[in-house]
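[step 3/7] fold_predict: job queued, chain A
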Amino acid sequence: MRERKQRSPLGSSNAVERFAVAGMALGEARRKNREQTWPIVIEGKRDLSALEALGFEGPIEVLNRGWDLARFITYLYEHYGTRNPDGGPSICLLMDWDRTGGRLQKTLTQRLESLDVKVCHILRNELLKALKPETRVVESLKSLATELSPFIEQEDPVESNN
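[step 4/7] structure written:
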């Protein structure tokens, strides 16, 4: 008889390692979002709900707010400038890692960079690599909060005010 490899409840044998990578990336982004008011640009309201469930408290900008793309990009440029105070990217783009999200990510990047706005893709790229077997959309991070939270807290411990 062939022995079956026991699978993780998350679907793959290396889920813990992948969730650690995703959680650490989310923790770093959460810290910068809170401490440096580093905005994270997402697609919709459910994405906002997911980031709030993961403890994000800084500025989160929702793309789908009824504005055309030119107005939204102008808003980002005027409110956040071209660089963060530390000289790094002034905005983090976190579109879904499906085909539509990829197109949005590319379009927003091209338009923002044409205005010399430095954009960060690290969080999206890390989540794409680490969580693709489980999800391809930001809003699903809410359902993965229990698994991701220990790794996020390890990277960005937040003291409770209670």
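[step 5/7] annotate
The first strand starts at residue 40 and ends at 42.
The helical segments are 15-35, 45-53, 69-80, 99-114, 122-131, 145-155.
exit 0
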